[in-house]
Every structure is written in C-alpha cells, then in structure tokens.
C-alpha cells in the first residue's frame, strides 16, 4: 500500500466512523461553523477544566475531508493542555500551508508529529479543499475563545 493509499484509507475510516460523535451533557462551551463553498457543517462541544481539554464531542455533515478532519481533531485534543492544543492548531495550519512557515511533518517517520492528522497533508495541494480541512479547527478556535471568556 502506498502512503497515499494509506492516507486515503485513514481519511475514509474517520469519515465513516467519526470519533467522539455526539454532544456533551456537563459543563461545556459550544461552537459551530460552516464552509459555504462546499456545504460542510461542523459543531463542537468542548469541556475545559483548568487548563486542560477534558472532553469533546462533534457533530457535522459534509465532505469526507471536513468530517474526517473533525474526527481526527476531536481525538487529538482531549487530554491536552490549552498550550498543547494551541501548538497542535499551529502545527496543523503549518502542515496545511494555512499559516506560513516550515512544514512540521517528518516525512521519514509518517504519523510521528500529528498522528492520523498527517493523512490530510495531501489536501494542501487543493486550495478549495483546505477550507474543508480547516473548518473544524476554526470552530475549535471559536470554542477556545468562548472557554477563555469570549
Ligand atoms: Zn468540504
């Protein structure tokens, strides 16, 4: 299996079986976003205690890129501190060429920097789809602002 095929299968797996799908019952903040250019929708419940993301739940509909990105993100952020989440957001946006800077991915060790999220790196070649991949992350940033008190 080529790396490209592996990435495609990781994306499809998250798309078909989204992790942490649903909503949260306890204390949490909520954010939602849309990507009109593709029709993607995404919403996020985020529970923050102290400076740690203790739980997250996602709902959404749209293309495989947007929904897989959200599933991978939800899986990646739970248990991380807020500075660690900020760092993750930064590395993701560097990988996708949304922020300018060096690509953080170690090509000799696939998955070693961003785990499953690295499967999305091929998307940066398709500028229209970058918005799909970024939708959950923009929604996460809204939720973090809300958790910080607006
Ligand atoms: Zn999309």
List the helices and strands and how they pair.
Blueprint: H1 3-16, E1 29-35, E2 40-49, E3 52-61, H2 64-77, H3 82-95, H4 127-147
Antiparallel strand pairs: 1-2, 2-3
Helix pairs in contact: 1-2, 2-4
The structure holds zinc ion (ZN).
Zinc ion (ZN) binds at residues 35, 38, 40, 62-63, 65-66, 132.
Can you describe what's shown?
The protein is an alpha+beta fold and 150 residues long. The protein has one domain (3-147): Sufe protein. Chain: A (Alpha-Beta Complex), CATH 3.90.1010.10. The protein has four helices and three strands, in the order αβββααα. A three-stranded antiparallel sheet has the order 1-2-3, with helices on one face. β1 and β2 form a beta hairpin. α1 packs across α2 and α2 runs parallel beside α4 (127-147). The radius of gyration is 14 Å and the shape is globular. The chain starts with a helix and ends with a helix. The mean pLDDT is 96. Residues 35, 38, 40, 62-63, 65-66, 132 line the site of zinc ion.
Gist of the model:
By secondary structure, the protein is an alpha+beta fold. It contains four helices and three strands; from the N terminus they run αβββααα. Helix content is 42%, strand content 18%.
């Amino acid at each position: 299996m080529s790396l490209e095929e592996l990435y495609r299968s990781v994306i499809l797996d998250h798309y078909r079986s989204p992790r942490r799908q649903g909503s949260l019952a306890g204390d949490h903040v909520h954010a939602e976003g849309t990507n009109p250019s593709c029709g993607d929708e995404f919403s996020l419940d985020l529970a923050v205690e102290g400076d740690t993301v203790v739980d997250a739940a996602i709902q959404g509909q749209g293309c495989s890129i947007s929904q897989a990105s959200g599933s991978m993100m939800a899986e990646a952020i739970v248990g991380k501190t807020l500075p660690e989440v900020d760092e993750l957001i930064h590395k993701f946006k560097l990988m996708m060429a949304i922020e300018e800077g060096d690509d953080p991915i170690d090509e000799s060790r696939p998955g070693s920097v961003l785990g499953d999220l690295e499967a999305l790196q091929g998307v940066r070649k398709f500028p229209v789809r970058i918005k799909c991949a970024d939708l959950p992350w923009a929604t996460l940033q809204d939720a973090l602002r809300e958790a910080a008190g607006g």
